[in-house]
Amino acid sequence: MKSTEEINIRTKLSILAIGLLSFLGILIETSMNVTFPTLMQQMNVSLSTVQWLTTGYLLLVTIVMATTAYLLKRINVKKVFLFAVAINIAGSFLCAMAPDFLILLIGRLFQSASTGLATPTLFYIIFRTIPMQKLGQYNGFAAMLISLAPALGPTYGGILNNYFSWRIIFWIIIPILFIVLWIGSRNISLETKKEDLSFDFIGLFLLALILIGLEFTLTQFSKYGLDYRFQFSLFSTLVILFVYLVYDHFSSRHLFDFSILKPIVNLRLFNYFSLQAINIGLSFLIPIFAENFLKTNSLLAGLILLPGSLLGAATAPIAGSWYDKVGAKFPLILSNSLIVFGAFLLWIFTDNLTIWLIMFFYLILRLGFNLGFGNTMSDASKYVDNKKRADQSSLFNMAQQYAGSIGTAVMSAMIAFQSIIFSNISSSKATLIGGRLDFAILFILAILSLSLTIFCQHLIKKNNQSISNQ
User: Fold this and answer.
1) What are the residue boundaries of the Major facilitator superfamily (MFS) profile domain, all occurrences included (predicted)?
2) Which residues, 6 or more positions from 122, have their beta carbon under 8 angstroms from its beta carbon?
3) With contact defined as beta carbons under 8 Å apart, do 377 and 123 qualify?
4) b or e along 333-355 (b: 16 or more beta carbons within 10 Å of the residue's beta carbon)?
């Protein structure tokens, strides 16, 4: 393992460049949430349609991330970075000048492919260049960028949408992307140990069908409830999932090396997924709740998340350093406990929520999230062979991105579903009832995540005892 003295300035700037590229992609993703009411009016589309700017983005990010385990074993990091920046710039121009919803969506998909390449590459560089005794600190920095962006996005989008135009959201980041390009092109030098592998196109196709199928199933639920269209979509997706599992078992080609998924890694992966589902779900739900039920403007709806965002940004690197000193047990249990408490408060007080209450409860949730998010992945890496770090980075980041997509889709579906149950229900009332269900779902997910985190610590203790007895 490399010594800490070998973390030179070029390595730090490489991490910064790819981290900023990932940050910008996620920032734009959530900055669009507060513009949905505006876009629905300007482009004459429904909430179930406009939310594809987020869920479609996250869906393609997830699919692209599935390819990075292969790409990072075959292509130098610098080439991956340059391509990611190029398609992000192209997508930003398309979005800024989009004459209709379709062009806007296409531009967002370009940007999603960029983020899908950038985020796993960020963690891959950290795993390859940072020593284990500093891993928590640097993963904390990466987690800060990834978790800060979703919460800052509504504030950023709300200010620009309220005072200028949603198009300015994209115009501002274009010059920043060129700065990122300059920093990365001058400093990224990590060479890939090229392996003789064949890409699993069939596996990627089946995986994409599964991910799209789950999203489509939730869309059918939000439009038609539990009728035959929802049932058929769910059944079809489960059939494709079965086909994929059989194919992967017998195929000689694999998108990932699933041998890394040992019990402890599986539990950490679920925790990682849950944390991001709650994080992105709330970043979508709270601005919608504030605008539709509390009748705030898009600026205030975005600003609600700002204090929690800043607290999270300050917490993540400190949490990483704490993990480096004391290990995973206390940071992760405290993290999940705070999330359970915050989600419980949002659920119990749904009918009486105010701007200030939401802001306070969200502070608790963000503190919990940032105590655990980066550390969860850091701890899982202890149980993964160095040669398989690309697989871990790809798999964990794919999971957290899809968690965001599913989280957004579920939050949206619960609100949209109210108009099916109750005829002539107002948008405000649908948001209240759907929001209450959403907060309850997040609370249950948080309890499950805490329970499995505690169980994981039991497995780690048992594993350590087994090793010491050998």
Assistant:
1) 14-461
2) 15, 18, 19, 22, 142, 145
3) yes
4) bbbbbbbbebbbbbbeebeebee
User: Residue 239: its pLDDT value, please?
Assistant: 92
Question: Using H for helix, E for strand and C for coil, what is the string for 432-462?
Answer: HHHHHHHHHHHHHHHHHHHHHHHHHHHHHHH
Under 8 Å between Cβ of 387 and 361: no
Q: Describe the chain by its helix, strand, coil percentages, rounded to 5.
A: 85, 0, 15
- Joined tokens for residue 247: 């194919």
**Angle, helix 52-74 to helix 77-96, in steps of 10 degrees:** 160
pLDDT at 334: 92
Residue 288 CA to its chain's centroid (Å): 19
Q: Are 80 and 71 a contacting pair, CB within 8 Å?
A: yes
Q: What is the pLDDT of residues 47-65, one digit of tens each?
A: 667 777 777 777 788 788 8
**If DSSP codes are grouped into helix, strand and coil, which group holds residue 140?**
helix
- State which H helix or E strand residue 337 sits in: helix 329-348
**Residue 216 identity:** F
Over the stretch 6-36, which tens digit does the pLDDT of each residue have?
Answer: 677 777 888 888 888 888 888 887 777 777 7
This prediction has a pTM of 0.76
| Extents of the domains making up the chain | 8-199+253-465, 200-252
Rounded CA gap, 439 and 436, in Å?
A: 5
In the CATH scheme, what is the homologous superfamily, with its name and number, of domain 8-199+253-465? MFS general substrate transporter like domains (1.20.1250.20)
